[in-house]
Amino acid sequence: MMNTIEDKIRLKQMEINIEENPEREAELHKQMSKLQFQKEIAVIRKKIEQLG
């Protein structure tokens, strides 16, 4: 799961870098933030599981 989210984040970064439309770029930044939060949540879930 982590690799998938990280791959999506990398892909989104590439999309942001090549996007010329400011409105589309803002939407991509929003999507990127969502992916980063999903990654953080996955890390927290893993820590909770480790604690038992």
> Tally the helices: what do you get?
2
Radius of gyration: 14 Å
Arithmetic mean of pLDDT: 94
The proportion of residues in beta strands is: under 5%
What does this protein look like?
- Helix 1 packs antiparallel against helix 2 (about 20-50).
- The chain is elongated, with a radius of gyration of 14 Å.
- The relative contact order is 0.16.
- The longest helix has 30 residues, at about 20-50.
- It is an all-alpha fold.
- It contains two helices and no strands.
- The protein has helices at about 1-20, 20-50.
Task: Give a quick summary of the entry.
With 52 residues, the chain is an all-alpha fold. The protein has helices spanning 2-18, 22-51.
Highlighted features:
mainly alpha, 90% helix, single chain
Helix and strand topology:
Blueprint: H1 2-18, H2 22-51
